[in-house]
């Protein structure tokens, strides 16, 4: 069905994600996917420029039809494949108007909330940044999110962006909200937005929808228990340890990787907070260093076998390595990282952008 479709996309791009969600929702998952590297300027390559003269992604081609700009791609797919997959644009004119308004309006989340603060940090030299401008960016971010919090509060719990059904408005808005969550934004001030984020399925198997990474891992282990790697031991005591480490791994995320990096570097930079974050990071990593030291060289997080605990913990350890953290203080964690990074499952799921770009040095300061 979609064999004559090609999409050029970049990892981490909200507009590209929009197009990809739409392709999946319309049942067109067999399209040709071309991942490009922004860092390597592949969006300016002749191959992409033939489709999109602006040299931007997403760039989309279906047979002889070329469509660029994420919203235009989504509308093209909905109108061309109206009778299949999820109906993303209602027939009722008033409801359709609301969906289209929210779809276009979602660009404000990108410009004022998701990338407003981040762009200022990443694109402004440290010596040129001012506290006043940062406060202005934060204020704009919160004001924009409050608008969307109000929309969802008015619709009630369990609603999507423009009503009870998943529509084009969600395709356009969700990637930018997910970017905020990914960057460690504290959603507690926006309870309806937080519930909305959890509402949009992260994983679907037939008619089964599962959200939250640990729940997805447990579902896969229980559903496909007899095949592949056994991720949850039968022995009750060992199983309890694996589950404890799996849940406990969230502390690496909160205290050592995202907790330190995003909340410190992006949102605030007082010296006292810097020292507090460093202390929390070191203390957390020392706990895991102790676990591995007790188990001995060649061990995984919960014993001699790779388990659910490793699936949960390794990504966060890999992130701090990626961001330039010096692992020399934690030799057992460093050996563990080297042990796991070459597993076939880890290599197959390695973030595409990481493969073509060098590690960062954001955390070398600690």
UniProtKB/TrEMBL annotation:
The gene is LOC118417773. Residues 92-231, 235-362 form the GST C-terminal domain. InterPro entries: Glutathione-S-Trfase_C-like, Glutathione-S-Trfase_C_sf, Glutathione_S-Trfase, Glutathione_S-Trfase_N, GST_C, Thioredoxin-like_sf. Residues 3-85, 114-228 form the GST N-terminal domain. PANTHER family: MALEYLACETOACETATE ISOMERASE. Pfam families: GST_C, GST_N_2. This is Glutathione S-transferase A-like isoform X6. The lineage of its organism: Eukaryota, Metazoa, Chordata, Cephalochordata, Leptocardii. CDD domains: GST_C_family, GST_N_family.
């Amino acid at each position: 069905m979609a064999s004559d479709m090609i999409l050029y996309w970049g990892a981490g791009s909200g507009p590209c994600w929009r197009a990809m969600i739409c392709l999946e929702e319309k049942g067109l998952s067999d399209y040709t996917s071309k991942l490009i590297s922004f860092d390597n300027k592949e969006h300016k390559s002749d191959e992409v420029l033939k489709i999109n003269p602006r040299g931007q992604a997403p760039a989309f081609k279906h047979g002889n039809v070329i469509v660029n700009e994420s919203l235009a791609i989504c509308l093209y797919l909905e109108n061309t494949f109206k009778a299949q997959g999820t109906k993303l644009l209602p027939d009722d004119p008033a409801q359709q108007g609301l969906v289209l308004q929210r779809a276009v309006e979602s660009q404000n989340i990108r410009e004022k909330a998701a990338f407003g603060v981040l762009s200022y940090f990443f694109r402004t030299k440290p010596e040129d940044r001012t506290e006043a401008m940062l406060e202005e960016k934060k204020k704009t971010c919160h004001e924009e999110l409050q608008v969307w919090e109000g929309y969802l509060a008015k619709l009630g719990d369990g609603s999507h962006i423009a009503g009870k059904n998943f529509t084009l408005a969600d395709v356009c808005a969700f990637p930018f909200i997910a970017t905020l969550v990914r960057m460690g934004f504290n959603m507690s001030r926006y309870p309806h937005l937080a519930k909305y984020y959890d509402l949009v399925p992260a994983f679907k198997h037939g008619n089964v929808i599962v959200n939250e990474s640990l729940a997805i891992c447990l579902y896969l282990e229980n559903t496909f228990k007899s095949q592949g790697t056994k991720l949850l031991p039968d022995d009750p005591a060992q199983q309890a340890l694996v589950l404890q480490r799996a849940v406990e791994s969230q502390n690496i995320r909160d205290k050592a990787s995202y907790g330190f990096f995003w909340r410190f570097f992006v949102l605030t930079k007082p010296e006292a907070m810097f020292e507090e974050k460093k202390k929390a990071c070191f203390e957390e990593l020392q706990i895991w260093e102790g676990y591995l030291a007790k188990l001995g060289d060649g061990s995984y997080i919960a014993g001699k076998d790779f388990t659910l605990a490793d699936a949960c913990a390794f990504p966060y350890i890999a992130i701090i390595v990626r961001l330039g953290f010096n692992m020399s203080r934690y030799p057992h964690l460093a050996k563990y990282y080297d042990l796991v990074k070459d597993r076939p499952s880890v290599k197959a799921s390695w973030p595409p952008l990481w493969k073509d770009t060098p590690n960062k040095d954001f955390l070398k300061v600690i």
